Amino acid sequence: MVRKRLLQFQQELISKTGHRKIVTKLVDFLIRAQDIDVHTISPYRLADHWQMPRKQVLNVFFEATKVGMLNFNWDLYCPSCRSLQERCKTLHEIHETIFCEVMPGTCSSQYFSSNIHLSFSPNSLVRKLSDKAHCFSGPQNWHHIPLRQYLEPGQKSFLKLSLPHGTYHMRFPGTEGEIQVTVIDRGEKEIGISICNRGFNREPVQISSKAKLLLHNKSNRKQLVILENCSWGSQLLTAANVTSRQQFRDLFEGEIFPKAEKIAVANQTLMFTDLIGSTGMYNKEGDQKAVERVIDHFDVLQQAVSEENGAIVKTIGDSVMAVFANPTDAYMAYKRAQQVISSDKQYNNSLKLKAGIHHGSCVAVNLNNRIDYLGSTVNIASRLADFADGDEVVLSRSACKAIDNDVLQLNDHPSKEIKIRLRGFDDEEFRVKQVALKEPTLKLVV
To answer: N or C, fewer C-beta in 10 Å, the chain?
Structure first.
């Protein structure tokens, strides 16, 4: 019966997504994998293992959840020790004031604002998992920590490491600082690290994958040594990333934060667009025809934003507010929309799109039963659009730093840096980059 139900889901998903190979692999994984592997499924980890595009795999997971084959899990991690502390079924259950109890005294009391991740598990109708509880703080959730060693005062410990190439951080909770450890072919084969009351005695080190490590606790208190893989979160989906995707917002409109919660988002990109020439179009062509063109331009923007992993948050008159995980996606979404509008004869060069894009920290809230964003980053992005002129892209300084340099170089448009003052930020001067777009009638500010 279960296998028959899975096959029904398989056909439905293939029809909805067109990704037969990915859907087939997912169904096979749900049938054959062990309970511990399907208890917390990362679509990015599977995509990398299958050597399939992450975006396509994630889209299949979204659709599989919508049809009832998979369930959402919103996992709240400790920002210090990276242990899983709580699991929620919906965003509405999330509350920020959760503190780590895995290693009392070693993790600072920090909010989980940027440490909410989305994972998946099979629906009970598809596969019933073992009744054995899966410990949130157990070793199975510490894949990113290859070394975790306690040392008594004065104790020495000699360890043989076996690490894949990459960058790691060695830290000692309760002691300031950390050591950057890089694993390379020609790294040191033996290293010694001493921990004192004031910290430790080593600069960044390069070691081989089979290095020998001598730890010596010279302090007068018990020490915990943690070696952590810096790329631990590269295969995890943050709530900020997921909720800035159009497909997620379209499929799961009910997934919103509680009204009382304000979730801090450390890195988010906001883009505001506006139309130049729309007022004249209303006066010249009448409301009905003008409104049709404005709606058409909204459709163009929504498709472009969705293709570049972003989402439309809301429309304000002729303007659009969109959110992205990074400035590169925002810039490419603008370019994609610009190419469509500039080549569409219905606009006849009478309408030009301008936009403002800024990257920084903001606050995600539940506003009018949708996920919205507030804060200085949002305000700056909205005001930057005022400084975009015909056929220009204006990039804020933080966006320029975060954007992929290859993207700007490939576009090869004339640019210049200017200093501006924004309404509401009278005491602060902003440096922005204006990039002139010679051919299109669309203008962007990033």
So the answer is: N
CA distance 7 to 1: 10
In the sheet that holds 116-122, the strands lie side by side as 84-88, 70-77, 116-122, 237-238
Residues 370, 405: contact at Cβ < 8 Å?
no
Q: What's the full length of the chain, in residues?
A: 446
Task: Say how far residue 257 (Cα) sits from the centre of its chain.
Answer: 17
- Maximum CA extent, the chain: 84
Rg (CA), the chain: 25
Q: Distance between the two ends of the chain, CA-based, in angstroms?
A: 53
Please count the other Cβ atoms lying within 10 Å of the Cβ belonging to residue 430.
18
Report how far residue 288's alpha carbon sits from residue 273's, in angstroms, rounded to the nearest whole number: 22
Query: Which residues does the chain have with pLDDT short of 70?
Result: 1, 79-82, 95-114, 130-144, 174, 176-177, 199-202, 231-233, 347-349, 406, 408-412, 438-446
Helix 327-343 crosses helix 287-307 at what angle (to 10 degrees)? 140
Residue 298 in tokens: 């909204």
SS3 60: helix
Residue 259: Cβ-neighbour burial (10 angstroms; 0-12, 13-18, 19+): exposed
φ/ψ bin of 109: left (φ > 0), alpha (ψ from -120 to 50), beta (otherwise):
beta
pLDDT in tens, 98-151: 556 555 444 443 333 457 889 999 998 888 876 554 544 444 455 667 888 899
Tokens of 380: 């700056």
Confirm if 397 and 430 have CB atoms less than 8 A apart.
yes
E strand or H helix that includes residue 210: strand 205-217
Contact 52, 245 (CB under 8 A): no
Q: If DSSP codes are grouped into helix, strand and coil, which group holds residue 403? A: coil
